[in-house]
Every structure is written in C-alpha cells, then in structure tokens.
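Curious: why this fold?
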Amino acid sequence: MTVKPKALRGAREGDPPAGRPPGILLLPALVGLAFLVLPLVGLLVRAPWSTLGTRLMQPQVLDALRLSLVTATLATGLCVLFGVPLAWTLARVRFPGVRLVRALVTVPLVLPPVVGGVALLLVLGRRGLVGGWLDSAFGITFPFTTAGVVLAETFVAMPFLVISVEGALRGADLRYEEAAATLGAGRWTVFRRVTLPLVAPGVAAGAVLCWARALGEFGATITFAGNFPGRTQTMPLAVYLALETDPQAAIVLSLVLLAVSVVVLAALRGRWMDASK
C-alpha cells in the first residue's frame, strides 16, 4: 500500500502542492501580473463614466458596434460551415501531407494580420488570382466592402475553431460511432447524429473564440476592406480613428471590447477548468 506524505493527505487530487514559492520566482511573477493587469486598470480608471451612456449612443459608435456584431457573427458562421469539415478531415482522414495541411491551417494564428490582408488582396482583389475572374465574370468585388470585412475576419478566426474541433474529435470515443455504423447508420447519419453531439462542446468553444477574434480583428480588415464609416469601420478601426480626434470615445469603445473579452473568458472558463483536470 502506498502511503502519501502527511502534508499531501488533505489535498485534493490534481491540486498544486502546497508550500511557499521561492522568491526568485515570485518577484518576476508579480511583475508579469502587474504588466498584464495595470493597463486594464488604467483603462477603467481613465474611462469617462459620467458620459459613458451618452458616448455609447453616438451614431458613429452605434454604427461601428452594429457592423462589428454583424460581421463577426457572419464570419463565425463561415468558420463553422467550413471549419468543422476541415477539422474532421484533419482528425479522421489519413492522407499524404496531412501535417503540412495542418501547419498551413494554423499559419493565420502567427501570421501578422496586415500580411493576411495583403494576401487576401492578392487573391481576391480586382486584379487577384481569383478576384479578377469574379469581377470580370460576375461583377463581384470584395475589397473595401462589408463582405470583405467578413472574409478578413474569417481568415484570421477560422484556425481557432479548427484547432478546438480537431482536439475534440481526437478525444471523442470512437466506439459510439462504430456502434452506430454496426447498426446500419450511414456515414452522414453517424456524423450528424453521433459525432456532432459528441464534439458539440468543442464546436461551441471554437465558435465563441472565433467570434471574439473576429470582433477584435484590425490588421487584415483595414488592409483588405479599408476604414469606411458605416461600411467597413468596425470597433477596432473606430478605436484607432478616435485616438486621433476623440480619445475619450476611444476609451469607451475599448471598454466595450474589454467587456466582450471578459464575457468570452467567463463563458469558456468551465471548459478550460475541465480540460485542466
């Protein structure tokens, strides 16, 4: 029989070991915490609380907020539509070059967003590889339009959903799918009735992350779609513009984005805690 040390008998399974941390680690930890928290505290302290409601009701603020919510939601829908099948392919299909494809899917995570915007222009611009054909054949143009905002946000946000769903698929119990197939269910039925319910938490978490990332997208949007009020000026772009003309409005817009981030973290907290056990 294994006897646990007395100091650990009262600790729950998975809890970190009790004890006083060494000072050489505690000091830089506190500095790192202050570095991350103080800018947020400064934002809250300098916020114009007395005129917050009035500033939020300004037409340009409402237009940027409405456009951000609409485009982020549409981009999330595209991420789910294309990202879930892509994640399933990466998790369940073995083909030559799967590692390369997986690496390419995650490139937007580390690629500077401005570079992503330039890449989108080269492909979907009026003289791009695909955009030129779309413009000449169908009269469809994406740059500097609201649709361009959606595409830019989709490009930078989709990897979050693919990674989340692929991880959920790899952790799912295949016996349920095998049992359904044994009972005569077709592949589409198994995917729709068994696989999707199994990975639904992963899809939901990935969709929330996608939505938050799309809402905060700046670089690819301003490069590919521009900064036109009411058409392509989302919340981050409005913050950038307001810093030059009305810093108080920039703080108000930043507070809205901060509140969204907190809500997203709160929504995903339970999933993170479960994953860490």
Q: What stands out?
A: Residues 59-92 form the longest helix (34 residues).
